[in-house]
Amino acid sequence: MHYIHWRIGEDIKGRFPVRAVVELYTETDATGHVLREIDLDGTGSVLYRGPSSENRFAFFDHQVVEPTEREDDISPEAFEQLWSQTDT
């Protein structure tokens, strides 16, 4: 698994029209498929946590991150802690 912290404007360029998302956290498998994603706004509030039965679309839906493109910059434990604190 790979755990990555993305920052809009630094790591992700271009137009991003989704409710003021400023940072994302992803968990990917060895092939780069995103398994889980958490999107936060500028205050650190969770806008999306997925996959979810309520929220069907996210920035990384149906996308693959090259496994060598990014190194882990959040620990698995930190990702799990953030995931467990969210319930959207």
Topology record:
Elements: E1 2-7, E2 23-28, E3 34-40, E4 46-50, H1 76-85
Antiparallel strand pairs: 1-2, 2-3, 3-4
Give a written overview of the molecule.
- This protein is an alpha+beta fold and 88 residues long.
- 11% of the residues lie in helices and 27% in strands.
- It has a 4-stranded antiparallel sheet, covered by helices on one side.
- The longest helix is centred in the C-terminal third of the chain and has 10 residues, at 76-85.
- The radius of gyration is 12 Å and the shape is globular.
- It starts with a strand and ends with a helix.
Short description:
The chain is built from 1 helix and 4 strands; from the N terminus they run E-E-E-E-H. It is of the alpha+beta class and 88 residues long. It has one domain.
| H and E string | EEEEH
Averaging pLDDT over every residue, what do you get? Answer: 76
- How much helix is in the residues? 10-25%
Number of strands: 4
Top keywords for this entry?
1 helix; single chain; alpha+beta; 88 residues; 4 strands; globular
